[in-house]
Amino acid sequence: MSEVLSQNAVAQEVKKPKVLPKPNSDFYQVFQLLSEAEQQKVLKVRQFMESSVAPVINDYWAKDEFPYELIPGIRDLQIAGLGYEGYECAGGSNLLACYVAMEIARIDCSVATFFGVHSGLAMGSIFLCGSEEQKKKWLPPMARLEKIGSFGLTEPLVGSGASGGLGTTARREGDTWILNGQKKWIGNSTWGHLTIIWARDVADNQVKGFIVENNTPGFKVEKIQHKMALRVVQNGLITMQDCRVPEENRLQNDTSFRDTARVLRMTRGFVAWEAVGCQMGAYENALAYAQTREQFGKPIASFQLIQDLLVKMIGNITACQCMVVRLSQLQDQGKLADEHASLAKAFCTVKMRETVGYARELLGANGILLDYNVGRFVADCEAIYSYEGTREMNTLIVGRAISGFSAFV
C-alpha cells in the first residue's frame, strides 16, 4: 500500500507545471551597484513604465502620436534633471541618471528619447553652458516638466559636420540676435516650449547657443512625417526667418563648438545606455515568447538553436552593461573623455542592432508584428544607431585617441 502511495506522489510531482525563470536581462546583477535609495528610484520608474506605458505604447507608435497624458506621471517620478544638482533638478549620480534612461528604454525607446532630449540635451545645455541667472530661470520649470525642451543642432544638410559647417547663422544687433536657418530631426519641437538652437555667429564664425522660445516670431516648426523609427517622438523641421532672440537668452558660458561638445559628450553616454535598454526590451520579450510558444509539442525555449540565440543576446547585453557602468563611473569621477563616450556609443549601438536582430529571428513572422513588441525595438534601434554621432564618426574619435593620428578630413 505504501509503495502505491509513493508512486502516486511521484506522479503528482511530475504533473506539476514547471516553474520557469522570469525574463531578466540583468545577468550580472548590475542593479546591485546602485545604493538602496537609487534602487527605489529605479523601481518606481520601472513600475510606471510597465503599468502605464507598456499597455498603450504600441497604439501610439502605430498612430505616430505622443501620449501627452503620461506627462503628469513622468513628472511625479521626479527624474528630470537627474545628475544635475540644484535648481529643483533631481540630482544624484550619473550612474543613476543613466540607469533610469536604460530602464525607460527597456519598455520604449521613444519615451526614452523624449526624456533624453528634454532632461539630457536641453536641460544639460543650460546647466553646462548657461549663466547662473539662466539656470535659475529655466531649469526649475523644466525639472517640473512645465516647460518641455528641445535641442536644435542637426540641419537638413549638416549632420556629422556640425562642428564646422553649420548653416544656421546668428547676427547681433545691439541686445538682440537675429537667427536664420533650418534645423531637422528636432525631437519634442512640435509641441515643446523652448529649443536650444546652435548657430554660427557671422562676426567671429564661432558656434553659439541660444534659448529660443518656440512661440517666438520667425520660428516655425513642421512635423516630420513617414518615419519608420521612434514614431512616438515628435520630430520637427524648424525654419527660422529673422527670428529675434534677446542677448539674455544666449547661453552665456558658451563661446564655441567646444562647449557644445561638452553637452554631446555627456549625452552620448546616455544614448549608449539607451541602446542597452533597447536590447534588454527585445531580449526579455523574445525570451517570454520562447518560454510559451510551442512547436513539435514543446516550448521552443527548449530547443538548442533558440537557446543559442538567447545566449548571444544576453552576452551582448551583459558586455554592454559592464561598459556603460564603467563609463558612468568615469563621468562621476570627472574623468570622462570624448573617446570614452564615443567608444560606448559605437560599440553598444552595433551590439544593439545585432541583439534585436536575434530577437526578431527568434519570433519568426511574429517578429514583425507590434503585438509582440520586438518589431518596435527592431525599428526604433535604427534611429538610436544613427543619432548622437554615427558609428563612423565615433570610431574616428576613438581612433585618434588610441593612435595619435587624426583621420578626420
Automatic annotation (TrEMBL):
The record ties this protein, via InterPro entries, to: ACX4-like, Acyl-CoA_Oxase/DH_mid-dom, Acyl-CoA_Oxase/DH_mid-dom_sf, AcylCo_DH-like_C, AcylCo_DH/oxidase_C, AcylCoA_DH/ox_N, AcylCoA_DH/ox_N_sf, AcylCoA_DH/oxidase_NM_dom_sf
User: Which residue ranges does the record assign to the Acyl-CoA dehydrogenase/oxidase N-terminal domain?
Assistant: 37-145
Domain Acyl-CoA dehydrogenase/oxidase C-terminal residue range list: 262-402
Q: A single Pfam family, by name?
A: Acyl-CoA_dh_1
- Recorded coiled-coil stretches: none
In this chain the Acyl-CoA oxidase/dehydrogenase middle domain maps to 150-243
* Biological processes, Gene Ontology terms: fatty acid beta-oxidation
* GO MF term list: acyl-CoA dehydrogenase activity; flavin adenine dinucleotide binding
Going by the UniProt record, its keywords in alphabetical order are:
FAD, Flavoprotein, Oxidoreductase
Q: Which cofactor does it need?
A: FAD
- Identification of the protein by name: Acyl-CoA dehydrogenase
